[in-house]
Write a structure and sequence with these properties.
Helix content: 40-55%
CATH architecture of the largest domain: Alpha-Beta Complex
CATH topology of the largest domain: 2-enoyl-CoA Hydratase, Chain A, domain 1
CATH superfamily of the largest domain: 2-enoyl-CoA Hydratase, Chain A, domain 1
Radius of gyration: 44 Å
Number of strands: 9
Order of helices and strands: EHHEEHEHEEHHEHEHEHHHHHH
Structural class: alpha/beta
């Protein structure tokens, strides 16, 4: 039976979002579900495969405990990296093996805190106690003293398979036939792969239909994941997992129970709405074309249409207008074509008489010539 621990170590209530995006991650729920699925009559060894940069201290502690107290024999294998919280989770095995190319990294727990000097002192004390708790797992495996192990954690120690075996963190090096030389070791860098808490909260709230703020009101002690090992705590309390947000949160509950936060959400929504409406109007006005004024005004104030939809309507209107124009031209041509033609008028020199009469009019005429001019014009015109 094989249990694979890959990716960050996370709290159980975060597992769903990693599963949703098909990202490697391991939580107490994953371990608990695996162990619960084992038939009580099945005495087969559990093979625990680890390749993780660590994560939540409390989650790793629960996973370690679940595996340690299980009646089946557990064989742990470090396939690539067992760093930070994953380093003591690896030690949950009754027998611990390590690939010759793998690394173990142990260091101090970290967090981010805010508040006055009392909060800082409290946080420092909590971190020191967490370090001692982590060192307990190393001590049970290696037999070394707390001082020796805490010094190694202070120095952020990276261990090759040979070094880990020498101090007793592992029992065997995989594929070792006794002639394996010293393995080259460097300080590899890696991404912890942990989704920030703010993103998880935002995604959860959006799934529940709740708008989230870009910034949150800082709590006395802010919980964040730092250097692959995290703790979750509040001032004046022992180490605890953060309370899970209520699943039935809606706007009415938010308004009644958190009026200040509700007002912030409403104000942000109002400002975003004004900005979006101004942009919509501007985009529509940019589409203004002669002949489409009525359509544009209707889109702005009646239909509340987006510019993209209006553009489609304008194209349709222009197409219809063009089609109507061509149809009218065709009808006019058909009417003209139905008019019968006639012969051209004969040339009877009336044009010459008309020209002479016109020249006379332009050059001025005498009073006695008016009747003659009138007769000539009349003859030229008809």
């Amino acid at each position: 039976m094989k249990l694979s621990i890959r990716g960050p170590i996370i709290p159980s209530d975060h597992q769903w979002i990693y599963d949703l995006f098909e990202m490697d991650a391991a939580s107490p729920k994953k371990v608990r579900d695996f162990l619960d699925s084992i038939d009580p009559d099945n005495n087969e060894d559990i093979i625990l495969e680890v390749n993780s940069g660590g994560g939540s201290v409390m989650a790793a502690s629960e996973m370690y405990t679940l595996l340690r107290e299980h009646p089946n024999n557990v064989i742990s294998k470090n396939l690539g990296l067992a760093a930070s919280a994953a380093s003591y989770l690896l030690l949950a095995g009754d027998k611990v093996l390590m690939s010759p190319t793998a690394q173990i990294m142990i260091h101090n727990a970290s967090t981010v805190a805010s508040g006055d000097y009392r909060d800082m002192n409290h946080t420092s004390t909590v971190l020191k106690n967490v370090n001692i708790s982590i060192a307990n797992a190393y001590k049970l495996k290696t037999g070394k003293t707390h001082d020796e192990l805490l010094a190694m954690m202070d120095n952020e120690s990276w261990l090759t398979a040979q070094q880990a075996k020498q101090i007793g963190l592992i029992d065997e090096i995989m594929f070792d036939n006794g002639d394996l030389g010293i393995v080259a070791s460097a300080n590899p860098t890696f991404s912890d792969g942990v989704i920030p808490q703010a993103i998880i909260d935002k995604f959860r709230n959006e799934k529940l239909g709740i708008q989230t703020l870009d910034s949150q009101i800082p709590s006395p002690l802010t919980n964040q994941v730092i250097n692959q090992t995290t703790i979750n705590q509040n001032p004046g309390e022992d180490l605890v997992q953060p309370k899970e947000e209520p699943k039935n949160m809606d706007l009415e509950t938010l308004k009644n129970d958190h009026p200040h936060l509700f007002d912030q959400v409403k104000n942000i929504g109002y400002q975003e709405g004004v900005t979006a409406e101004n942009k919509r109007i501007k985009d529509i006005e940019d589409l203004q074309l002669p002949g489409n004024e009525e359509l544009v005004n209707k889109a702005k104030f009646e239909d509340k249409m987006e510019a993209s939809a209006l553009a489609v309507e304008i194209i349709k209107a222009e197409k219809t207008r063009g089609t109507n124009y061509l149809n009218n031209v065709q009808k006019d041509a058909e009417i003209i074509n139905q008019v019968p033609g006639g012969d051209a008028p004969a040339n009877n020199n009336n044009n010459a008489d008309f020209a002479n009469a016109l020249n006379a009019a332009l050059n001025g005429t005498h009073e006695g010539e008016e009747n003659e001019l009138s007769n000539k014009l009349g003859g030229a015109l008809g």
